[in-house]
Design a protein that fits this description.
This protein is α/β, with parallel strands linked by helices. It has ten helices and nine strands. Strands 1, 2, 3, 4, 5, 6, 7, 8 and 9 form a nine-stranded mixed sheet that branches. Helix 6 links the parallel strand 5 and strand 6 (151-156). It is globular, with a radius of gyration of 18 Å. The model has no long low-confidence stretch (mean pLDDT 96).
């Protein structure tokens, strides 16, 4: 069996939730220290059209303060506590922290930010080090229109009753190929050997999410996934035989 350990990318989900509060500079700094290949982050727009990093559309679950991110200004969002003394970062702050030491996997959670995202990626020369993902594929087409060289990934999952249906899983791959995407980021339950073989035959990368059990990590590594999105970067490093 081929050893894929040296080929599997480590992708910290929201920075890696075991490294600090999700989507914070503290978590992203720790991901850098742990030598992750990518950090995954969720992009949203504030009321005053600033790009911030935050998973939920509503601020309540994480900050205890109700309201939608899109209805609050950046100044208001910066007053919220997101854990361990951290504040909600802007996309620009994350790019400056990354400083070409780590790649970016952007989860686009809101529409109408593509011009700003592309402009920042160009300003910091980060086009080649970035993958943009979204469940709404038409959003991705807007990014391609602005920057044809940007790598795009379909972010997909399936209803539980459809996981075992090969025709449905194959269609996810076929749609990604038809749309000329670089990768598909599927929920890990739908990934097996036929799925990986078919995707790779179509020159499509596979980055499953969100994998937090070592046994599943090892299985996916052995199957030959191109990378794994995880909350636990240290555990994935261990599964890959890395230590930092």
């Amino acid at each position: 069996m081929m050893n894929f350990k040296n080929l599997t990318l480590v992708i910290g989900h929201a920075g890696g939730k075991t490294t600090g509060p999700e989507n914070t500079l503290k978590a992203f700094k720790k991901a850098l220290q742990l030598k992750a290949d990518y950090i995954e982050l969720d992009l949203r727009l504030s009321k005053d059209n600033e790009i911030v990093i935050f998973h939920d559309p509503d601020t309540f679950n994480i900050t205890g303060v109700p309201g939608l991110v899109k209805d609050k200004t950046l100044k208001e969002l910066k007053t919220l506590k997101v854990g361990e003394g951290e504040k909600m970062p802007t996309f620009q702050e994350v790019i400056e922290l990354a400083n070409h030491k780590i790649n970016l996997l952007l989860h686009i959670a809101d529409a109408h930010m593509e011009d700003q995202v592309i402009n920042l990626l160009k300003e910091y020369a980060y086009i080649e080090k970035t993958i943009v993902s979204c469940m709404i594929h038409r959003y991705l087409f807007k990014y391609r229109g602005l920057e044809p060289n940007l790598k795009l990934a379909a972010l997909d999952n399936l209803y539980s009753e459809d996981i075992a249906k090969w025709d449905i899983r194959r269609k996810l791959i076929d749609n990604a190929v038809k749309n000329k995407f670089y990768a598909i980021n599927p929920e890990y339950h739908i990934v097996d050997a036929p799925f990986i073989t078919y995707a790779h035959q179509k020159n499509l990368k596979i980055f499953p999410w969100t994998v937090n059990e070592e046994s599943i990590m090892r299985k996916l590594i052995d199957l030959g996934v191109d990378g794994i999105i995880t909350d636990d970067i240290s555990l994935l490093n261990k599964a890959l035989g890395k230590s930092f």
